[in-house]
């Protein structure tokens, strides 16, 4: 029998720093919940809105796979690897921090907010050489379809990371439906609703809800709203 965990939007941790309005699906910074530490390799899923011209000053990371998915606006990334890049909606950013990276992340627009998902995964290899990658994804090709963003395969669609994990995103019309088959036996799947309402294997989900499922190989996904958007994270399970 499937094991499930439902994280309703209103139960997330929340921090409002003025320049940053952040909701934490899992324990992060000053939000601590021993029952919400991670879902397998998925350690952080923050839903962040950054005020115009503001952002995160340079700070270190190591041995973590860090993904940024802009939903609106644009981010300016700088790091000690020599990268200075703008990432906007329709683009995906991955850092394998390995032996250590210093980076900053700022809203690239002075007078418009930036909305993005900040996601961390534990890697399957430690102390790798740090790397930064960014790819552009055709948003139009994800209508009523789960589009692959990230996988373990450097030659696969989208970009890649050091973990047996797959990220997909779909945008659906009302009544739009699809199925998702787990990519690696023993993995679990975490669904995060970016907007709209869905029914996944009979479970009703609303905007910003998270839903983790173990011991299930196939999922039916049905949109209940026009222009609904869903993120699917397929990850190894461990605690």
Assign the CATH topology of the largest domain.
Answer: Jelly Rolls
- Specify the oligomeric state: single chain
| Secondary structural class | mainly beta
Write down how many β-strands occur, each being a DSSP E stretch of 2 or more residues: 22
Mind telling me which CATH architecture of the largest domain this is?
Answer: Sandwich
Strand content: over 45%
Query: What is the terminal-to-terminal distance?
Result: 20 Å
Domain Pirin N-terminal: 13-121
Domain Quercetin 2,3-dioxygenase C-terminal cupin: 149-235
Protein name: Pirin family protein
Family: Belongs to the pirin family.
Notes on the protein architecture:
It comes from Chitinophaga filiformis. InterPro entries: Pirin, Pirin_N_dom, Quercetinase_C, RmlC-like_jellyroll, RmlC_Cupin_sf. This is Pirin family protein. Belongs to the pirin family. The chain is mainly beta and 239 residues long. The protein has 2 domains: 124 residues, Jelly Rolls; 97 residues, Jelly Rolls (Sandwich). It contains no helices and 22 strands. The strands form 4 sheets. Strands 1-20-17-22-15-13-14 form a 7-stranded mixed sheet, with no helix packed on it. A hairpin with a 2-residue loop joins strand 18 and strand 19. The radius of gyration is 17 Å and the shape is globular. 36% of the residues are buried. The model has no long low-confidence stretch (mean pLDDT 96).
């Amino acid at each position: 029998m499937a094991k499930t965990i439902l994280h309703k939007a209103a139960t997330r941790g929340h921090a409002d720093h003025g320049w940053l309005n952040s909701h934490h699906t899992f324990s992060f910074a000053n939000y601590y919940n021993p029952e919400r530490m991670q879902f397998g390799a998925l350690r952080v899923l923050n839903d962040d809105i950054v005020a115009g011209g503001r952002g995160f000053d340079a700070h270190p990371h190591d041995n973590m796979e860090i993904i940024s998915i802009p939903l609106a606006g644009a981010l300016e990334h700088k790091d000690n690897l020599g990268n200075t890049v703008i990432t906007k909606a329709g683009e995906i950013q991955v850092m394998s921090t390995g032996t250590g990276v210093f980076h900053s992340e700022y809203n690239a627009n002075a007078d418009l907010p930036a909305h993005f998902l900040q996601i961390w995964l534990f890697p399957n290899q430690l102390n790798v050489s740090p790397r930064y990658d960014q790819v552009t994804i055709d948003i139009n090709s994800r209508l009523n379809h789960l589009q692959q963003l990230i996988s373990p395969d450097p030659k696969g669609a989208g970009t890649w990371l050091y973990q047996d994990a797959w990220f997909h995103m779909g945008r659906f019309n009302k009544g739009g439906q699809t199925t998702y088959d787990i990519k690696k036996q023993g993995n679990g799947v975490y669904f995060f609703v970016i907007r709209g309402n869905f029914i996944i294997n009979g479970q009703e989900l609303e905007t910003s809800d998270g839903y983790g499922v173990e011991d299930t190989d196939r999922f039916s996904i049905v949109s209940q709203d026009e222009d609904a958007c869903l993120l699917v994270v397929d990850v190894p399970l461990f605690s």
